[in-house]
Specification:
single chain; 364 residues; alpha+beta; 12 helices; 11 strands; globular
Length: 364
């Protein structure tokens, strides 16, 4: 049984009583009952070995068969969105930015339909307040401004705020079932993004395949190597080099947080004086409830420069987290921008086709 769908714009009145993870537990031998540690481990990254599930099992005191079955159940229950690589865009020669625009309610759906076909738009949300349309855009280095201009043109007369990350304080969301989002903050990953050597076409094909989902089998990397024409050990050696260089952050499960019960999420923003943003960002990074935290440019129409994304089970819980974050960082001038509707959520697409033509303002 899957949890009920979230109704856009409304907080569900009931808590989910039986999560897909709970259902998974009943289908595995009692001696191998998975726990939150396994769920977190699968999100943090599987070992780059021929038998990754066996390696995880040894660490967690489970069996290979039990871990593999649990991983497969994440897809069967609809919790898993993807099992694949999380790349560092800059290391592949790409750049990304967060964008926002304020669109009248009666034009919002048509505006979204015009821009979301762009494969570089990976996340697109309606949030309450102003601006109300938020999206991320990724494009090859040197092309981002041009692609942003194309997207802005598709939105018509409405100004688009360009809000690139000036500094990363925390990245990589890892969701636990009962204690709220838990994040392993890896300073090395926050410093990743050094330009990588140009990739050969064969290596680009590996990137293309890894940004899709990998089959959850006993030997996933062996199967993947066969698809790509590599010897398994050669492919694993390549992936390990990329991981060491920061090109790959991890190969892991990407989950749908709502299916895990995290139904209230908000982008929280504060206006912080230049001299205080480093300490405030570091304070946010220590919270287990913050999944992403960035410094971004401020604008007269939106004078906030510190952003933190939080996820919680209820709005009340999220509001409490927001208050605590502000108090701990010594901040008061903040806002919560609740996620009202998710229009698009995918992983970035690298080394693929030319972005298609976008719709024109005034048409769908």
């Amino acid at each position: 049984m899957r949890p009920n769908s979230h109704i856009p714009g409304r907080q569900p009145p009931l808590q989910i009583s039986r999560s897909p993870w709970h259902i998974m537990e009943t289908e595995i031998m009692q001696s191998e009952k998975p726990d939150q540690d396994l769920l977190i481990a699968l999100q943090r990254g599987v070992p780059l070995e021929r038998r990754p599930w066996a390696a995880l099992a040894r660490t967690l005191g489970l069996t290979e068969a039990g871990v593999l079955r649990s991983a497969q159940e994440l897809f069967e229950s609809g919790v898993a969105r993807r099992f694949g690589a999380v790349f560092d865009a800059q290391s592949l020669g790409y750049r990304s930015t967060l964008c926002a625009a304020d669109i009248p309610e009666d034009e919002l759906e048509a505006a979204v339909a015009r821009i979301t076909p762009h494969p570089g738009i990976t996340h697109c949300y309606r949030r309450d307040g102003h601006p109300n349309l938020w999206f991320t855009l990724t494009a090859p280095d040197g092309e981002l401004e041009g692609e942003l201009a194309r997207v802005a043109g598709a939105l018509g007369r409405y100004a688009v705020l360009n809000l690139p990350a000036l500094r990363k304080f925390k990245v990589e969301a890892v969701f636990g079932q009962s204690e709220g989002p838990q994040v392993r903050h890896d300073p090395a990953s926050a410093q990743a993004g050094l330009p990588a050597a140009p990739l050969a076409e064969r290596e680009r094909e590996v990137v293309r395949r890894l940004q899709a989902s990998i089959a959850v089998t006993e030997d996933p990397f062996g199967l993947l190597a066969g698809e790509l024409g590599y010897a398994p050990d050669d492919l694993l050696a390549l992936l390990k080099r990329w991981e060491a260089a920061g090109v790959i952050r991890r190969i892991a499960f990407v989950l749908r947080h709502r299916q895990l019960g995290f139904l209230a999420n908000s982008m929280c923003v504060w206006s912080v004086a230049a001299g205080g943003i480093e300490s405030a960002g570091a304070s946010m990074a220590h919270s287990p409830h913050v999944t992403h935290c960035y410094e971004r440019p401020a604008f007269p129409s939106f004078p906030f420069n510190l952003y933190a994304m939080i996820h919680a089970k209820t709005r009340e819980q999220a509001a409490g987290i927001f208050e605590r974050l502000g108090l701990d960082a010594g901040l008061s001038a903040g806002r919560m921008l609740w996620s009202v509707r998710e229009y698009k959520k995918t992983s970035p697409v690298f080394f693929c086709e030319t972005p298609p033509a976008l719709g024109k303002s005034g048409s769908i």
